[in-house]
Each structure stands twice: as structure tokens, then as C-alpha cells.
Amino acid sequence: MNxxxxxxxxARIAECDIRRTGLLPEHVTAFRxxxxxxxxxxxxxxxxxDVQEAGRTLIDRAWSARSMDDTVWTLExxxxxxxxxxxxxxxxxxxxxxxxxxxxxxxxxxxxxVGPNLIPTWDSMVFKTPAGAPRLPWHRDAGLYDHAVGITGxxxxxxxxxxxxxxxxxxxxxCIPESNYWDDExxxxxxxxxxxxxxxxxxxIPAVMQPxxxxxxxxxTLHGAPAVVGxxxxxxxxxxRPAEVEWQLGPHTEDYIGLKQQALRxxxxxxxxxxxxxxxxxxxxxxxxxxxxxxxxxxVDTLRFAHEDHWRW
Length: 313
Ligand SMILES: O=C(O)CCC(=O)C(=O)O
Known about the structure:
By secondary structure, the protein is of the alpha+beta class.
């Protein structure tokens, strides 16, 4: 790893101990400024164990299927050295992960940051098995708008990563604070420079995480992760966007909003009906009246709404 030659704008990632303080205005301000926030202790030990089990099952299934259906591999899956590194649409593949998507504290945090019209967009598990995973080069996330900084610089399109395993400095996501406000030219030049060698963290800070923690990042924040072998790290990623932005600008079509609202409401209901969460106050989803696009729609029988079937661009 190269030494840090520029002083990063923040020496360490801003943190929130969610069960002790809730999300305070200073946490929101830190997230808006840095484009990243570590939320400690989102999951109870029991829920963490259940989601870890769900993650294990999905990865085991990927290894036995050796298919590219909703799964990203390091090489063609029939190659002996291939390893799976990402599974898409995990809410549809696991009841436990669907119930996680209905987590009231998670959804309250997202409502505070994204606004009342939040909708879930991407849901994936990104993971490193002991077989190894290549570095994730420095990047902003997908589904960027033209004039992205004007639309989402201050942070209402957010990726929420829920950690199932420890992420120490040599196996964690690194972020460049405040890069969520950079113009395209600076982002491209910086990413190109950092990606020119195997792993360069100049100007970046590590997001060291514990199992059960939540890492929030603005999709515009430049981030990357080093290559790793011999370690396991699994993260469930849920992305959220404001429905009014999706409605006007995409990237998905208008019908997608209602479908994803139905999916969100199903996840909340599934969790509320499960005896493991008895006594928990369910999330109260209250988008603006004009953006309650689920009204009058037939029930959905899937939680998988493929991006390419609802892509506007
Ligand atoms: O969890 C990681 O290693 C990073 C994932 C990531 O940046 C991505 O999938 O875009």
C-alpha cells in the first residue's frame, strides 16, 4: 500500500452509535459533508446470526450452481480458479434478507437521509470468500445522473452496506471524503491515478467495520477495496433513491416506483408477521400522497424486479 502523501480532508470516518444516540443532526451533517458514515451496531446478535446463515446459504448455492444467473464470478464459473463475488436480488432469494430489508431502524435512518419518498433500488450481496477476490477499483456507483453532483452531491442517493463479517483495514472499503462534491473531471483524474497501481489509498480513509454495523455512502463518494485472499467478508448492499427523482429522471421507468414500493411494503409486512420480531414497532412508510404508486395495483408475487426490464435510459 502506498503511503498517504496528501492530507485527507477527514482523518477518520464519522460514526454513529445508533442504539445509544439514534441518528443525530451532527451525524446527518457529517454524512452530507463526507459522503460516508459508519453506523455501529444496527443488528442485534440474533438477527446478525440469522443473516449470516442466509449469506452462507446463498454463497454455498452459488458454489454448487456455478452459474452466472444473478451472480458475478472472478472468472468464467467453469474455470477451476473461479470464485463468486457478488449476488444480485438477494431480497428475493432469502426470506431472512427480505426481513432485513424491512428493518425499522434501518428504514428510519434511510427516511431521514433520503426523504419520505425513499424507494429501494439495488439489493445485492458483495463478498470475498477465502478463495479470493480482486480489488474493486476506485469508482462512483452505477446509475449516475447527468449533472450528478447537482442532483445527489449532498447525499440523497445512498448505498447502505450491512456487514456480516469484520472488515479490518486490509480488507475494507476505503473512501475519499467529500469526493461526493467533485466534478467529473476531478473524479476521473483521481480514479485513473489511483487505479494505475494495484492499490493506492492516497487521500482516502478506511471504513473499518464490525459484523452488524452499517456503512452508508453517497453513491458519488469515490471508493474502492483491495484484493484479498484467505479471508471472508460479506456485505448486504441496499441502495435507496428518492421516488420524486426517480420519477422525473430515472434511471428506472415510472412503473418501477410502484413495484419497488410494493416490495418494500412486503418486506415490512413479512418482518411484522414473524414471531422473531414480535414487539418491534414496524416501519411506517409514508411517502407523499402523490407518490404512493402502489395503490390499486395487484399484489406482487416476486421481490425481483430486474433493472433491465424497467430501465429508462
Ligand atoms: O464491499 C466492497 O468491497 C465494495 C463494494 C462496492 O464498492 C461496489 O460493489 O460498488
